[in-house]
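In response to reviewer comment 3 from the previous cycle, which asked for concrete evidence that the modeling workflow produces usable outputs, we include below a single protein chain processed end to end. The sequence was submitted unchanged, and the resulting structure tokens are shown without manual editing.
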Amino acid sequence: MKKFLFFCSIFLTFAILTTVTSAQQKPVSGGSLIIAQGVEPPGLDPTTATSAAIPRVVYTNVLEGLLKIDRNGKVVPALAKDYKISRDGKEITFVLERGVKFHDGKPFDSEDVKFTFDRLMDPKTGTAHPEYYKDIDSVQVVDSHTIMFKLKNVNSMFLFNLARPDSIIVNRQAVDKIKSMPVGTGPFKFVEWVRGDHITLTKFGEYYRKGIPYLDKVTFKFIGDPSAQIASLKAGDIDVIAYDVSPENASLLEKDPKFKVLNGYTTTEVILSTNNSRKPFNDVRVRRAMAYAIDRTALIKAAMSGYGIPIGSHMDPGNPHYIDLTSAYPYNPEKAKQLLAEAGYPNGFEAVIKLPERFAYAKRTGEIIADMLSQVGIKLKIELTEWGQWIDRVFKNADFDLTVIGHAEPFDINIYANPKYYFRYDNPKFQETLKKAESEANPKTQRELYITLQKTITEDAVNGFLYVLPSLPTMKKEVMNWWKDYPMTAVDVTEVWIQK
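The workflow returned the following structure tokens.
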């Protein structure tokens, strides 16, 4: 009997603990969240500006598209509950969610969708990425909750492009407010923007997806100094640092039981950008030599405290077409010296690497690369450049030899088809293959073409493909259901809740 009672007590204790744990994991409504953001957005319209700071505040929180990218990187329904593609792939019909309201109370319907895409296709609007919509022939309203896109050509990227922040649906009666006081359909509505300090959002009580969001209020607090972000987190002034946590700080905070760090990946490919139009970098042997001279494993360990995933081409591991090409250029200094000699530089050469002072990862990575390249005779002079100057000189005018920067835009391998892009790569074969990939309806063939594209720029060693920037969101342990990986430039807090 004693043994029986003993086991019963153990079972009862286990059952109670299991019940408590289960109850703790059930989402709880209420509460507010303060999120540190390193960069203040220049405006709040993601359709006409490329700053990543914009969608981090408004994408899926305030403004929604027909489709969206979920936490697993999949294209899923948003304002469109379903869609059908014609056999020839040139007609896509969307059935819209019913009962949706904008934050000003106006009902959402097909006319808002048509207005949005007519606006995006209008050159006068200043759309940030008009190429996303180049294949649209017309947008036709079928009825109040059905809309049809007719395409000039099959476009395999079309649905993904509709899920980007650029394709959020605009309230046609409040379009003039979108830059500073956006009126959307999302789970949170805009309340205020105190310039230089914060943006506040509150729960939208009439959100069409019942039960969410869980939070009552979300504040994006602009704190540019990473040390100040950490100090604010430790002091309890903020709850989450969504981006920009340095690897060394992440390592320290992981050891503190009051906080948690999620080690995930982003869409940001960090590359040694190379001016392919300048000597000696217009010689593929020189570019390949640099690739052999860089030890990615040692680089990630030294620059990122071991966080980050090495890459061998311009695509992140979250992309469905990604292949691992890191073995194409194994660390081999002797091979690098051999290629330099073949290219006419047996004693190496001198060049300048312009590093954007704003980004610590870029500075650290550039300094380590300069040391690695010096081992094979390439002597780099480091110039720290203010961000505005970097944009003007490097990005806009290609006035550089080398630089280090992260490309945050998801699925952006298409930039290698633009000969005027800042690294000045011009390969007609790549351009033609991209056209085929973007117009290919068969998923298997499409993947094969994107693999070919990755291999092409790797073989050409267009840039030094280094690593994918880790996400490392850091927060109080009570913050639940945060995204670990960032397959889209977003801080989606729709399903985030606070454990009581």
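Residues 267-469 form a domain with the Dipeptide-binding Protein; domain 3 fold (CATH 3.10.105.10). We consider this sufficient to address the reviewer's concern, and the full set will be provided in the supplementary archive.
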